[in-house]
Amino acid sequence: MIEVLLSKLGIICLNNNEKEFEDIIWGYYSNHSGFSISFNLEILSKDLNRTTPEKVNYKRVDELERFGLSDNTDEFPWTVRSWVSQKKLIWKPENEWRYIFFDIDYENSSSRKKYYKQESINKVTLGLNFFGKNREPIKGTTQAFIYNPTKELDLFNYRILKHLTDNTKFEVWWMFQGEDMKLEPIPIKLSYWDPYGIIIKIENPQK
């Protein structure tokens, strides 16, 4: 019975990052080459079946609670929520929140997918190394450059940039590294250079 109940369990992990740990989180998960999405919590929760996220509690190893899972269908959700909302203290910089679902159909893998509307997105932030080696300078300015996808073997990043360029309602930021070597998110503006190239204009360049 417990195996059946666990097969219906699904978790989405997000974080409410604190600025002082921003460099660490980017390094953990993407080597500074991925991207992050900032959501409007109220809209996102409505999209996810009005589910409220659980805040993860960070504890020393000797403080972590041990739980025995019960096959009582009334007790099971409470026990699981308590179990998955605790984590070792070393992970505290993540400031993680978790959406927990008990409606997964283990025989239908597509039921593990959860969808949200574009309106729930506040902004998209691109990692420091997102553009890779495909940045080309624009003569006469240091506040803009061209992203040239013809140098890419995998066009995944280009498809993301194209989507963001076509959907101007999204705020787009870039994790910029200044002379002090600290990463700082700055707003950027995307536009087309030609049918393929994309201009990345820095709206608030670091001094």
User: Mean pLDDT, rounded to whole units?
Assistant: 86
Structural class: alpha+beta
Strand proportion: 25-35%
Low-confidence stretches: none
Give a description of the structure:
There is one protein chain. By secondary structure, this protein is of the alpha+beta class. It is 20% helix and 31% strand. The chain contains 5 helices and 12 strands. It has helices spanning 2-7, 22-30, 41-47, 76-84, 156-166; strands at residues 10-15, 35-39, 54-55, 57-59, 86-88, 96-101, 121-126, 135-138, 141-147, 171-177, 183-192, 198-202. Strands 2-7-10-11-12-9-8 form a 7-stranded mixed β-sheet. The longest helix has 11 residues, at 156-166. It is elongated and about 70 Å long.
Short description, anyone?
The protein is α+β, with helices and mostly antiparallel strands and about 210 residues long. About 20% of the residues lie in helices and about 30% in strands.
